[in-house]
Amino acid sequence: MIDYARLSHDFSALGVTFGQTVLLHSSLSSLGHTEGGADTVVAALLGLLGDGGTLVVPSGTSGNSDTSPFYRAAVAGMTPEEVAAFRARMPAYDPGSTPSVLMGRIPERVRTLPKAYRSAHPLTSFAAIGPQADEITREHARDCLLGELSPLSKLYDAKAHVLLLGVGYDRCTAFHLAEYRYRPDPPQRSYRAVVDDGDGRAWCEFVDVHVDDADFWRLGADFEVAGDVRLGWVGAAQARLFALTDAVDYATGWLTTHRTPATY
Hints:
Layout: H1 4-14, E1 21-26, H2 37-49, E2 54-58, H3 69-75, H4 80-89, H5 105-111, E3 117-118, E4 126-129, H6 133-137, H7 151-157, E5 161-165, H8 174-179, E6 188-196, E7 201-209, H9 216-226, E8 230-234, E9 237-243, H10 244-258
Parallel strand pairs: 1-2, 1-5
Antiparallel strand pairs: 2-4, 3-4, 5-9, 6-7, 8-9
């Protein structure tokens, strides 16, 4: 049984401390049997971060988009009539109530805390709690999933840390910020989502950088060799803690070398 005291000890040994801003990517099941589940994990982290620290999690949604892998899997095998009916039922994104999709139980717990803030992007929102939560999640531009007008850029400026808890570098959202920086004209594509901007349910479409995490596992392996990554165990989960600025700066150079226009 993994309890609050064990989690606090393990997070502290890894390097989580008072006043940090931490972007967390996590797998609750990887920890082993945890007393109190996601509630206890979040409480242990917030206890270490204290009143001066901010905890941030991805709280993205893909159930309201027809340009997501989630949607393609959902409609696979449907007739055109069934697809039309499915699209008609897709809910508009509401920052206050729309559950995250495929993010895990720990981010959902953070998202639903009474004092949590959440960004307004209909696909790639972030939720946060702590003194910097409002600033980090505010003004997330619709045509900027994970770039300069997203919470990731604010996390970079805030010198945040990334905590990978039982997940690999393929889940490291910070690397996406480098996709906006590694070249002046990164590949772009169209995105669509259901929103409600005050006039009822409607579809929106915008063009933004073609974000792609297919090579993040290789990028992460190289970063771990070259970078300052703290490795440890939290319960039964392997964990990594590192500076978000280091990860983004390294990824910007790595992508410049390893991605070419022919990649797309």
